């Protein structure tokens, strides 16, 4: 019995190990360049289209935001109907129950991002603060899908 164990401890480590296949993601590549404006306090604002609507919308890029949202006035102007308030959202203004515009596509230059659920909230105060219409905020739900590089000098 000792001989068999000794042989097993000598031969088995010398055998090539078979392991599970590992799949490698292809190297990252640039998909698009998104020009942006920088507001007071370093706030980044960029333009995007919501599905087939012809007018571009102004979105704040907020890495601390968990979701993606649209301004309630913008939603009304586009003729969209949000769902009844169904979920609690915590933001800088506190906690409130919000409705959603579901399964929409955002077009940012050549980048087309589908299956987004926008919560709807009033951003009138942000528009007044920055002096420019703020139509929405983009956060983790979009940022988690891509590697994002920001060049503050070139503004894209």
Explain the overall architecture:
The chain is 19% helix and 33% strand. The chain is of the alpha+beta class and 156 residues long. The chain has one domain (24-143): Beta Barrel (Cathepsin D, subunit A, domain 1), CATH 2.40.70. The strands form 2 sheets. The protein has a 6-stranded mixed barrel with strand order 2-3-9-4-8-7. A hairpin with a 2-residue loop joins β5 and β6 (94-98). The N and C termini lie far apart (70 Å).
Helix and strand layout, with pairings?
Elements: H1 2-14, E1 36-38, E2 44-50, E3 57-61, E4 68-71, H2 72-77, E5 87-91, E6 94-98, E7 100-108, E8 111-121, H3 124-130, E9 136-138, H4 140-143
Parallel strand pairs: 3-9, 4-8
Antiparallel strand pairs: 1-2, 2-3, 2-7, 4-9, 5-6, 7-8
Briefly, what is this?
With 156 residues, this protein is of the alpha+beta class. It has four helices and nine strands, in the order H-E-E-E-E-H-E-E-E-E-H-E-H.
Key words describing this protein structure:
single chain, 156 residues, six-stranded mixed beta barrel, two-stranded antiparallel sheet
Regarding quaternary structure, what we see is: single chain
CATH homologous superfamily identity: Acid Proteases
In the CATH scheme, what's the topology name?
A: Cathepsin D, subunit A, domain 1
Question: How can the largest sheet be summarized?
Answer: 6 strands, mixed, barrel
Count of DSSP E strands? 9
Element-level helix/strand string:
HEEEEHEEEEHEH
Tally of alpha and pi helices: 4
What is the molecular shape?
Answer: globular
